[in-house]
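Task: sequence design from structure.
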């Protein structure tokens, strides 16, 4: 590994994150939020000190190409250090009681989880809440992907970094150069962000609310500057706009590029996209019918509105809420719980296991059943028009196994808090899946404030693992990773 080269890039990217802190810093100055302004100043100071240390440490060092292990190490520590430096303003401003709570919040932001420790969100400085939402937006398409898009010095090493941040069964390289691919993806991401902001402004939101809601919607993230999330606005129009853009954020962004280049048939034939929309559509319809039949809502259209929103929020792992769904019938809650283990599409801003993995495993199970009936038959596993190779299926199976075991262990450790079983396992899997809201005490009206400091650090680790899809983080803890080659 090239540790000095990794440190150089880490210094660059921390300064890069600091640059995006400029907007809330200006807001703190304009709105006379003194403590928040001091907090941002401290953050800049720590980032500068880190960059100076790296510059001294790296003197007379010749740059070398990055290997796979460099990518894993760099990406993991980018998120760890980025969250640490970004949490400083939250503590200094007085919005958070301690560093562990602030770190949890920022890690939740960058990983697009949307879980919070705040009980009274609206009482905090507007600049802090804006920075909190901005971390959602930066993490949605990936901090490292944006870094690769805008920093030309990385060169071929950018492939290693992007691959380490976006581990998955499919990776679409839209152009021969990874930097151009990253630019295209972020260009589409920014374009959707602008469109949603404009549409929300038409819905009566002010600019501050429109931008912060957009940050969390298109990133499938879930932070909101209001105590009651999107339900605060009580608007059919806003619910529809946010639902649409949650679905957009949960789909593979590479498909939008294909659509823009005239490959519409290729987009519609995409097996994962069709499965994603089908799962959301069918669950939405079933829940709407059930809510209307049980007289939870007076009309079917009202039931459909709330059902479509909450299903989109869960399957895309956004974590917004317009209703307290823990009061809905148990059957409905079970459907939402199942969606916990689906997630968005590969190449999307959403988290979770990912639709393509779920579909591939289900189809593989069906093929194995068929092979028992016809032992000599050869039946390929396909998702859409793509054949899933055996090695990819093994990788997917391994990922799901690690995912479930990690979530169960996390839930068992969370049980040390003496909370009920649903709360503990829900908290674990919502952090691991970057979902943001769950059941029990971490439902749509709850938060993570009651958990102890050690558990907040554990949940922060789970969020990091989930965002980097387990393998990148766990690889660092193996002995083979540190062996010299």
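Answer:
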């Amino acid at each position: 590994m090239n540790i000095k080269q990794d440190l150089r890039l880490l210094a660059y990217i921390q300064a890069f994150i600091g640059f995006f802190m400029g907007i809330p810093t200006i807001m703190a100055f304009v709105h006379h939020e003194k403590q928040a302004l001091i907090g941002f100043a401290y953050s800049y100071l720590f980032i500068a000190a880190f960059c100076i240390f790296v510059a001294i440490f790296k003197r007379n060092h010749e740059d070398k190409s990055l290997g796979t292990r460099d990518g894993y190490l760099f990406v993991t520590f980018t998120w760890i250090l980025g969250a640490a430096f970004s949490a400083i303003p939250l503590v200094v401003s007085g919005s958070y009681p301690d560093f562990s709570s602030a770190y949890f919040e920022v890690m939740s932001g960058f990983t697009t989880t949307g879980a919070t420790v705040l009980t009274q969100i609206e009482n905090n400085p507007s600049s802090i809440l804006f920075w909190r939402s901005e971390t959602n937006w930066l993490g949605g398409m990936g901090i490292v992907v944006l870094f690769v898009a805008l920093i030309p010095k990385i060169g071929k090493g950018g492939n290693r970094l992007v691959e380490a941040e976006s581990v998955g069964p499919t990776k679409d390289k839209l152009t021969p150069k990874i930097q151009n691919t990253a630019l295209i993806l972020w260009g589409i991401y920014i374009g959707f962000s602008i469109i949603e902001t404009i549409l929300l402004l038409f819905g009566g939101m002010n600019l501050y609310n429109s931008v912060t809601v957009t940050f969390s919607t298109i990133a499938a993230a879930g932070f909101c500057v209001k105590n009651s999330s999107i339900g605060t606005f009580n608007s059919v129009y806003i619910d529809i706009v946010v639902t649409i853009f949650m679905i957009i954020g949960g789909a593979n962004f590479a498909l939008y590029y294909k659509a823009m280049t005239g490959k519409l048939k290729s987009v519609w034939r995409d097996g994962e996209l069709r499965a994603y929309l089908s799962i959301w559509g069918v669950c939405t319809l079933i829940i709407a019918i059930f809510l209307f039949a049980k007289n939870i809502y007076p009309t079917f259209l009202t039931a459909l509105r709330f059902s479509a929103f909450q299903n989109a929020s869960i399957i895309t792992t956004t974590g917004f809420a317009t209703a307290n769904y823990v009061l809905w019938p148990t059957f409905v809650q079970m459907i939402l719980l199942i969606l916990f283990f689906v997630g968005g599409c590969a190449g999307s801003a959403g988290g979770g296991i990912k639709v393509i993995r779920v579909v591939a495993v289900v189809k593989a199970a069906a093929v194995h059943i068929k092979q028992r009936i016809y032992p000599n038959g050869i039946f390929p596993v396909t998702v859409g028009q793509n054949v899933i190779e055996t090695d990819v299926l093994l990788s997917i199976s391994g990922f799901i196994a690690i995912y479930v075991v990690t979530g169960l262990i996390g839930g068992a450790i969370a049980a040390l808090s003496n909370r009920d079983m649903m709360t503990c396992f829900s908290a674990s899997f919502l952090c691991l899946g970057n979902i943001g809201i769950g059941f029990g005490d971490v439902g749509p009206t709850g938060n993570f404030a009651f958990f102890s400091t050690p558990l907040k650090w554990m949940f922060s680790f789970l969020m990091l693992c989930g965002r980097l899809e387990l393998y990148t983080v766990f690889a660092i803890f193996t002995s083979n990773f540190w062996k010299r080659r």
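The two ends are 9 Å apart (CA to CA).
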